[in-house]
Write a structure and sequence with these properties.
92 residues; mainly alpha; 0% strand; elongated; 5 helices; 2 domains
Length: 92
């Protein structure tokens, strides 16, 4: 019983003095990879235009006239709309 108590007490002391747990206890966030990445300069994204999204749709197989028989332009128009909205990444 005594060795178990000593182990629990030692773990509690280590946990409260460890910087990670101490930061949580004092409401200071610990550095993470995401916060380090936020401080990095960002790479400028290419501008989205109708022409760049149209070219990308052809490159990725959603060319005009490639949709179903009832509406052959539907796939192309949807792709371009999603691209202009930023839902489709420009790079591979």
């Amino acid at each position: 019983m005594r060795p178990t108590f000593v182990a629990i007490a030692a773990t509690t002391i280590v946990a409260t003095t460890n910087p990670t747990f101490a930061a949580t206890r004092h409401h200071h966030p610990t550095p993470t990879f995401a916060s380090v990445r936020e401080n990095q300069p960002t790479v400028s994204q290419p501008t989205r235009s109708y022409d760049s999204c149209a070219a990308l749709s052809v490159e990725r197989g959603a060319a005009p006239g490639q949709g179903n028989s009832s509406n052959p332009e539907a796939l192309y128009k949807t792709f371009v709309q999603q691209c202009l909205a930023g839902q489709i990444p420009l790079g591979r």
